[in-house]
Amino acid sequence: MSITRNPARLLVASLQLILAVVGLLGWEWAARSTPKIQFLLSRPTLILNRLVIWLESIYTYRDIMLTLSETVIGFVVGALAGFALAVVCYYSPFLYQVIRPGLEMLNAMPRVVFTPLFLLWFGLGLTSKAVMAASLVLFIVFVGTLSGLQEVDQGLINRLRVMGANHWDLLRHALIPSGLTWVFSSLRSSVGFALAGAVVSEYLGSSKGLGYRIALAEGNLDSTGIFAGLMILGVVVLGMNTGLYKLEQRLMPWKA
Amino acid sequence: MIQSLRTAGLPSAHQQQFLLTFQSVSYRYQQADQSVPAVENLTLTIPIGSFVAVVGPSGCGKSTLLHMASGIMPPSAGQVILHGKPLQGLASNVGYVLQQDGLLPWKTVAQNVGLALTLKGLKPDQIQDEVADWLKRTDLSRFAQSYPSQLSGGMRKRAALAASLINHPELLLMDEPLSALDVQTRILIGNELLTLWQRDRNTVLLVTHDLEEAIGMADYVVVLTARPARVRAVYPIDLPRPRDLSLIRLTPEFQDLYSAIWTDLREEVLRAHVHHP
Asked: Which of A229, B107, B229, B244 could bridge across to B111 with cysteines, CB 3.0–4.6 Å?
């Protein structure tokens, strides 16, 4: 839909722009007039400056690629594991009953506490970060997918069964596509978690990656570096969300 | 004077071939600690190639009958006999048309219509030919690549009919297939249903609460009692075919049948209402 055909959208966009400009100008002005604020909050032009310097360095791209790979690998592994576990639990309510308390307990535990353990088990490299990201994504996707599978209309299932569908057919033609809707809604909320898992792990034990960069800046009380790192993270999340949206449209054309 | 056959089977003593027989079937379900009878000691035979409509008060166990016929819910007592053999497990070669159209939202109209053949493991080009044929017959060719959500209620219903009939099922079970449609669309789709059925003459067991629809379409109308369901009466409908549902209800023969059957049905409806207000 073009902007001109929708005046409300144009209004929303211009208000968003005005809000951003006013916010940034206010920030810039406050930081310039009070040194303490500049020390605590940095300043938009300083952050921009830092970003420009960073983006001239090959190491920045290495860090971005590393964090991105950790996040994406963790995300994919966690999502697949969560999906598979949900399918298994759907077919075996007995198993689900048995493992449910354990799953709920694990899910409720603050995962940050596991970070040192993961570092101990999987080393300081990529694996420990991907595992961390996966452990966060797994539960979200598991819960979403299981409720998606349980929501499938029983009438539909019955109709397919009398048409001669076996278990595999039901999975392929009804359960998976129906579950997909839920998988994607849970995936959208897991993107942030996957990235947070990877970054927090880097933050606590790594010598590379965006999390490391932010930790380094914190060590130097360098608020500009922290904000610059956060800006890059924000762009990465936006990119991942867009990719997910494209994937969703491809995989679920009936939703369009 | 209209007479109902107050016997168990439909056409009395003739050596007719039966496709489906409910033999003293009962169905009970558990509610809290109680076992509640939905269907009790019901006997009904359905001749090959006949269109049988079952009417009865709301909630009397009509749908349960279809579930038993398809094997989804085996009877608690008695037997379902399909093709002369007691039904065990799920029935095969049965088509099911539901009140909701039962189409898969994630498949295109063409994929939905061809699903039964896909499940059978037919080759894609074979499926394509059959599907094209059925889409043409249901006037949906232009919408082959659309998704169900993009169609109107009537078009979805036509697609659902094509999807159920493409497999040439020997038995077609229909659970209130037209009741989600508005009254005018219902007549139009009902006519199309009859036209499609006329060609292959599958055996049909239709459950409906709409007596006009039942008389207009069926060869026999079975009236069930209020819960637990038994057969109260069976009326042969000798109206000539092909029938036009938009006109048939104006004929005196139809009106006579309607008032005769309604007398039976009304009593059960009132009885059901007293017990479950």
From this structure: B107
